[in-house]
Fold this sequence. Notes:
This protein has helices spanning about 10-30, 45-60, 75-85, 100-105, 120-130, 135-150, 170-175, 190-195, 240-245, 260-275, and strands spanning about 5, 35-40, 65-70, 90-95, 155-160, 180-185, 200-205, 220-225, 230, 235, 250. β9 and β10 (about 235) form a beta hairpin. The chain starts with a strand and ends with a helix. By secondary structure, it is of the alpha/beta class. The chain is built from ten helices and eleven strands. The chain is globular and about 50 Å long.
Amino acid sequence: MTTRRLDGREVASHLRRDLEHRVQQLAASGEGSPPRLAIVQDGMSQGAGLYAASLERAARSVGVSTHLIVGAGPHDGAIAELNRDPGITGIVLAQPFADVGEGRRLVELIDPAKDVDGATPTNAGRLARGEPAFVPATALAVIAILEAFDIKVAGRRAVIVGRSAVVGRPVASLLLARDATVVICHRQTLHLARETRRAELLVAAAGVPGLIRPEMVNASAVVIDCGINATDAGIVGDVEFAAIAPFVSAITPVPGGIGPVTPMMVLRQTVESAERQVP
Length: 279
Ligand code: NAD
């Protein structure tokens, strides 16, 4: 059996072309506001800085303008201003903030209609209830990859390793909405390998390099690796790619899998937010 390599760069480049076209159509219609993404960060975290930079790059590539706010805060006034400004169609708080509690508090100030990284409790609640919502971008990237490679979800047993609000939980909601049977594993799960071996669709989102080893997957599995872990050997995922890739049915590489698709999902939601303003 040949393993399918689920190349996120290829998916991202299709998405880029589609978004570029939609941005041009919005401009040609002369109605509503052109999409514009505001990114707020405290400037303290390298990870948040990299995320902001990748969003800015991706935005430029599809013709969406950005407005970057970097500083120690407090950011309450800035967020209120962005909420009011009809020229801003999306707002992202680049996490983590040095003060995690402050990051969590500020997220709640974002207008849910501009919350294009699905971070507010309102959008999380809507997603959990199976209602239309803005969704965390990494979770949407998982679905975008499955759709791009025509991988069946309905009726399949999906096992997700990780239950964070940004990846594990929203992935579970999205897969459930697509009629998968969903199992969520986490740090307290007993016999992780027993669960993961039963997965037809395995989504790793634990942030632990090489957590998923060959004996933990079955040969028919589709493996999606959301992990982005900085190690001495460079960026690696949660899955032992080299050992597992030869015998599963399909797998995303790291880097080059979920990573390049994630910023495109923020931009897709920023463009959707602008399209909703068109009368
Ligand atoms: P997190 O630390 O908030 O959550 C990790 C989850 O994994 C927790 O629910 C924890 O219970 C579970 N977990 C940790 N160790 C485990 C173990 N040994 N066995 C079973 N479960 C375990 O992390 P996060 O923010 O969800 O990020 C997860 C990974 O995804 C990280 O590598 C992160 O860098 C990556 N990530 C990628 C993107 C992207 O764009 N691709 C975006 C966000 C996060």
